[in-house]
Amino acid sequence: MRFVLAIVAFVVAAVMIVAGIAQRTVFAPPSQLTAAAIVPGDARYVVIDSSVLNAHPGQQTLTLSGSKNPKTQMVAYGRTADVKAWLADQKYATISYRAGDTAPTVKTVTPKPASTGSTGSTGSASTATPVPTATPTPAPTGSGASQAATPGPNPAGSDLWLDEYDGQDAQVTKMNVPSGVSVIVAGDGTTPAPNKILLTWPVDTSTPWAFPLIIGGLVLLVIGIALYLWGLYTHRRSRGPRRKSGPKMPKLPKAPKYKPTASIEATPRGRRASRRTRVMAPALLAGVLALTGTGAGAAFAETSTPTATPTPAPTTTSAPNDNSPAPAVTAPQLERIIKRISVAAANADAKNDPNLAKLRFAGPALQLRDANYTIRLKKADQPPLPAIPAGPLELSLPQATESWPRTVTAVVKMPNDATGKPQAPLALALVQPTPRDNYMVEYAIALEPNVKVPNLAPASIGAAVVPPDSKLLKIQPDQVAAAYGDILLNGEKSKWYSSFDLTDDKLVAQVGASWKQQEQARLAQQFGQTSTLTFAGRVGPGPVISMATNDSGAIVWVNPEEVQLHKVTEAGAQVIAGATTAALSGVAQSNTGIESVYGYQLAFYVPPAGSNEKVRLLGFAQGLVSAREVQ
40, 66, 338, 363: which has the fewest C-beta neighbours closer than 10 Å? Predict the structure, then answer.
C-alpha cells in the first residue's frame, strides 16, 4: 500500500511541478500589448484620441520614429476639446483604435473654412472652431503629397498642454492619460510630425499559482520518497527466515450451500451477522458512489443549494453626469505657466527690453514695466519692479470655462528681501485670449499685509467670471475703478466713501486726498502762485476682471489712473520735473507744464448686493506710466 501511495505522490508531484513551470514559460502571457500605425504623407500634426490611449488598461507608452528632424519633434497632451481648439483651421491626422482591432486606423481631418472668427482673434470670435471633416487616408505607398508651403503654428511651449515633451524626450513617453485627454504629436509646425507611432500597454504577467504549485509538487515529491523508503524498509523486515512446513492437509469437501426459503428469516442474527453488515455497508456505499460518478464532496454538493455561484453583472461606476465646465488649468499646469512667466520676466528685466516683456505681459502690467524700463535706461538708481517668483503657489483660482478668453488668478509666495525680511505675496491675474496664445500677466500686485482673502472655490472646480455690469454686487465691477479714484481725489467728500473699508488701506494713506492737499500746499509755499498742481482721475485701459467668490461676492481687478498736471501760471516761470518724470518724458524743465500719469493696479473684494460688508482693497501696485510736456 505504501508503494502505491508513493507512486501516486510521484505522479501528482510531477504534474504540479510541470504545471507550475509551464505557467512561467509555455503558458506565460505576453508582457505588453502593442498597436502600431504608420501615418502616410507629411502630416504636420497627429492626434491620438483619448479612446485610443485607454483602449487597454494600464500606463501608456508612446514611441515615435520616422521624424525628419528629431530635435523639433514634440509630444504633448491636453483636454481633447483644447487640442481640437488649438488645431482649429489646421489639417491633421487622427488615429483610431479599439481593443480587439488588428491595427489602428489613420484618418485625415480637413477643417472646413470658417465664415467668421479664427483662433488668432480675441474675444468671443476666438471660440469659433471650424468643423473638421474626417476622410480615410489610403494605405501608405510612399511619401505622399506634401502640405502647403505655408508654415503652421508651433505647438511647442503652449500653455494649453497639461504636459509636454520635446526633442529626444519625446522619443519614448510614458503617461497615464485619463479619459477626455488626447495626445498631439508634431514637429515645429513646418516639418512633418514623426510618422511611425507605436503604443504599448503593460499586461499583468503575474502567475500566482506557479510558485505554490512548484513548492507543493516538491513537498509531495519528498513525501513520495519518504513513503517509498518506508515501504521498502517494512518489506525487508517482513522477509525473515521461514521453516519448511510438512505436507499439506487435503481439503475438506465443500458442504452444499444453504438456500433459505421464503418462510425462513433472511436477515442473519448474532455476532457474525452484525460483522457482515458492517463490512457490507461501506462496500455498498462505495458502489453507489462509483455508479453515480461522484465522491463524497460531490454528493454533498448535490444536496446543497442547487443554484450556481452568482456572478455580478458588469456595471459602470462612472461619475454622476456633471455638465459643469472644467477649470481652465490644473494646479501642475499653472505651476509650469508661472515658471515660464518668471523666466520671461527675468530676461526682460535684465535687459530692460519691453519687447521681451510683451511675450508674457499685457495691459496695466506691461504698461508699468515698459515705463520702468525707460526710466532705468536714463536713471541708473531707479529700482526695478518686483521680480515674478517661480513659486510656490499659495493660491490658485482658475476660471471654469471651455471657451476663450480664459482667466486665472494666482498668488505666489515672494522670497525674503535683501535684509531677510518677508515680503508680501504677489497676486497675478492671467488672461489667455485664444487657444494659441499663452497666458499673459494683466495685473501683478502685492497683497496688503494681513489681508483677509474671501472664501474661494477650490482649484479643482474653478470659479465663474462675473460680468462687468453685474448688479448682483454691492458695486458694479465696471464702476469700482471710478468709485475708488473719486475717494483718492475727494476723500470723505466722495459719495463712495462709506462703501469702502479704508481702515487699513495704505494706498489712501499714501496718495489720498490728504496727501494731495499737502503736496499742493508745499508747492504754493515754495514757488508761490507761479504754477498750479491739479489732480484728475480716469479709468485706465486695463480690462475689468471679476472672479466670483463662494459667498456670491467677487474679486475685482481694475486699472484707475491719476493725472497730475503741473502747469505754469506766471510768465517767465518754469516747471522743474522730478528725476523720474524727466527720465520718462525727456523734459527736465518746461515753460508751460508737465503732465504725469500714474497707473494703479488694484484688486478688491466686492461683497454681494445687500451685504453689510464693505468693499475692501486686497492689494495694489502703482507707478508712473507716462509723462509729457503740455502747452
Answer: 66
